Amino acid sequence: MNLHIVALFKFNENYLMEAVELFQNLVKETRKEEGCLQYDLIEDKDQKGTFFLIELWESVEHHGNHLGQDHLLNFRRDASRMMESSTEVYKGFKIY
């Protein structure tokens, strides 16, 4: 069963250019992963510094493999100093 994920990030406005660069690398590398069906970066239209990752994974196991990838671990390390708050992550299965 496919796993749907929405991850919400809030970055300090002073770091927007750096944040986008980090996201670009993360998205590019993640899209290469086995089981990644969708991995899109969205910027909130009203709130500067607020981004969403819209993810679709073939399975929970594929997403589990993603969590240990170097590009994700590096993103987390580098982004943590630029963020205003902790990342919010919502996971679920399509019901209709």
Describe the structure.
This protein is of the alpha+beta class. It has one domain (3-91): Alpha-Beta Plaits (2-Layer Sandwich). 33% of the residues lie in helices and 30% in strands. It has three helices and four strands, in the order βαββααβ. It has helices spanning 16-30, 60-66, 70-79, and strands at residues 3-10, 36-43, 50-57, 88-92. The chain has a four-stranded antiparallel sheet with strand order 2-3-1-4. Strand 2 and strand 3 form a beta hairpin. Helix 1 (16-30) runs antiparallel to helix 3 (70-79). The longest helix has 15 residues, at 16-30. The radius of gyration is 13 Å and the shape is globular. The chain starts with a strand and ends with a strand. The model has no long low-confidence stretch (mean pLDDT 97).
Total count of helical runs of at least 4 residues: 3
For the largest sheet, list the strands in their spatial order. Answer: 2-3-1-4
CATH class: Alpha Beta
What is the first-to-last residue Cα distance?
Answer: 13 Å
Question: Which features would summarize this protein structure in a list?
Answer:
96 residues, alpha+beta, Alpha-Beta Plaits, four-stranded antiparallel sheet, 3 helices, globular, monooxygenase
Short description:
This is Antibiotic biosynthesis monooxygenase. With 96 residues, the protein is of the alpha+beta class.
Helix and strand topology:
Layout: E1 3-10, H1 16-30, E2 36-43, E3 50-57, H2 60-66, H3 70-79, E4 88-92
Antiparallel strand pairs: 1-3, 1-4, 2-3
Keywords: Monooxygenase, Oxidoreductase
Protein name: Antibiotic biosynthesis monooxygenase
InterPro entries: ABM_dom (IPR007138), AI-2_Isomerase_LsrG (IPR050744), Dimeric_a/b-barrel (IPR011008)
